[in-house]
Specification:
Blueprint lengths: L1 H26 L2 E11 L3 E6 L2 E2 L3 E5 L2 E13 L2 E8 L4 E7 L6 E17 L6 E19 L2 E6 L2 E15 L2 E11 L1 E8 L2 E8 L3 E10 L1
Antiparallel strand pairs: 1-5, 1-15, 2-3, 2-14, 4-7, 5-6, 6-8, 7-8, 8-9, 9-11, 10-13, 11-12, 12-15, 13-14
Length: 216
């Protein structure tokens, strides 16, 4: 007579565990990544003075490390929509090429925003790689004159590619690594030695980030 009771109790325990697991997965509908990002701009531009290109004129930006955050929401199985931000960091633009020796053309504080559609492989596994693609936005929190005065750089839209992985370490917590390639062009203007100049720049940064993730 005890065997049916034992069987019923065992079945009840299995069903309870299964329901709890299902609730955990059902609640796991999004994630947040917080960490540090290294920004490496392409540093390619055509400089114009008086409407004519200046041969071999260039600039170099220093690679910067700054804070980054991204939040994503799963919409179906491994498919997710994510928005991210790389916070502005002061970045000097050092003259190079035929302008070498002029020093700092000016300081900028560029920030980068992204919105991507992603697919996460092995979503509930210990290691979950993902890829994504979408749009990006470059904005400038501040601009300071250097050798170039009245420096102005346009905010600009672009595209983004993304790849990364989450490595689950405990419950909902994970570590992540992420690489984004943004494709963004912008226009700059100002005065150099009193003469008006303009530039068409390819920013196209690589953004490499790592940090802590949390599923919710």
């Amino acid at each position: 007579m005890f065997r049916p009771l034992i069987l019923a109790a065992t079945l009840g325990s299995v069903l309870s565990a299964t329901a709890a697991h299902a609730q955990t997965d059902a609640a796991d509908t999004g994630y947040v990544h917080v960490g540090l990002a290294r920004v490496d701009q392409k540093d390619e531009a055509t400089l114009y003075a008086g409407g004519n290109p200046v041969p071999n004129a260039g600039y170099e930006t220093q690679k910067k490390v700054t804070a980054a955050i991204e939040a994503g929401f799963f919409v179906y199985e491994g498919a997710a929509i994510a928005v991210g931000a790389v916070l502005p960091a002061e970045t000097p633009n050092i003259a190079s090429g035929s302008l070498d020796g002029l020093g700092n053309l000016g300081d900028e504080k560029p920030g980068f925003l992204t919105a991507t559609a992603q697919y996460h492989f092995n979503r509930n596994g210990t290691v979950s790689p993902y890829v994504g693609a979408g749009i990006s936005y470059l904005y400038f929190a501040d601009l300071d004159d250097g050798v170039v005065t009245d420096l102005d750089i346009d905010n600009s839209w672009g595209t983004a590619l993304q790849a990364g992985a989450d490595i689950r370490v405990s419950g909902r917590w994970s570590l992540f690594v992420d690489a984004k390639k943004l494709f963004i062009d912008t226009n700059a203007s100002g005065f150099l030695g009193g003469a008006p100049i303009t530039a068409d720049a390819e920013v196209d940064p690589w953004i490499l980030s790592a940090g802590v993730g949390f599923r919710f």
